[in-house]
Amino acid sequence: MEFEQILFEKRGRVGLITLNRPEKLNAWTPKMMAEMRQAIDASIADRDVAAIAVTGAGRAFCAGADVSAVFKANADAQDAGSTEHNDPQGGLNWVTYIQNLPKPTIAAINGTAVGIGITQILPFDIRIASSEAKVGMFFVRMGLVPELASSALLPQMIGSSRALEWCLSGRLVGAEEARDAGLVSEVVAPDQLIDRAVALGEQFAGQSALSMTLIRKLILEGTNDSDYEAVGRREGKALEQAYSSWEHREAIAAFMEKRAADFTKQEPTLPR
């Protein structure tokens, strides 16, 4: 599979996507997002891939939207009377697409990630960062507002007061502060970032795919839900599916036989 703006390879059981416009600091374009989706779809279709990781080539993860290809094109279209926008919120439905994937996603932030460079990975399951990484909600600097549902996702992760400060100031936030705020789960040395992302993906590869899918869905739906009875009902429904799966029976057999469970010997049970 050939791409123009990303690289795609398999590292063990991890599908590794690398944003690959280093000369432009991996500035985002609609084509880049479309190619990412193609690579993710290929990973989902490949039974040998258990998790998906995304990183950036060069010194940046993604320096926001390409000003010429996105912002200037939009401004020129507006001046010409067009109502169409080169809008990241368009037909891809990126946030819903990422959150509904049946396999875990990991963002490995190797350098600067600002604007859509950071908002595109807020729906990911796990975010880790290089100690050299910096993130920024730069929209106010461009006279714009956050997109890709980040006005909801960011405060869910770091709290509304901190989210407002980051968004209204448009400042760069270092990796350690991003970890302490809850945006990323861990910070590692730059030369260890990809290996750590792959190691996480390999760890997930040893787990029940059904269980991970159900857990991810429960946590996503349960975040900020104060109706604990509704949360309990969702958990009960998920438990019914899990109890009836071959993966659960395999875990029981492995425990009784004092061996590691093998969740790869059959097709994963699909959530209902």
Describe the structure.
The chain has 272 residues and is an alpha/beta fold. The chain folds into two domains: 6-205, 2-enoyl-CoA Hydratase, Chain A, domain 1; 209-256. Helix content is 44%, strand content 15%. It is built from eleven helices and ten strands. The chain has helices at 30-45, 67-79, 94-99, 116-119, 150-158, 160-169, 175-181, 193-205, 209-222, 228-243, 246-256, and strands at 6-11, 14-19, 51-56, 60-62, 105-109, 112-114, 126-130, 134-136, 173-174, 186-188. The chain has a six-stranded mixed beta sheet with strand order 1-2-3-5-7-10. Strands 4-6-8-9 form a four-stranded mixed beta sheet. It is globular, with a radius of gyration of 20 Å. The chain starts with 5 loop residues before the first strand and ends in a 16-residue tail after the last helix. Residues 75-85 have low confidence and may be disordered.
Structural class based on helices, strands and sheet pairing = alpha/beta
H/E element sequence: EEHEEHHEEHEEHHEHEHHHH
How many structural domains are formed by the residues?
2
Q: Supply the CATH class of the largest domain.
A: Alpha Beta
Share in β-strands: 15-25%
Arrangement of strands in the largest sheet: 1-2-3-5-7-10
Assembly of the depicted chains:
single chain
CATH hierarchy: architecture of the largest domain:
Alpha-Beta Complex
Total of DSSP H or I helical runs spanning 4+ residues: 11
Mean pLDDT: 90
Could you list the spans in which at least 5 consecutive residues all have pLDDT below 50? Answer: 75-85
Shape: globular
Biggest sheet, in brief? Answer: 6 strands, mixed
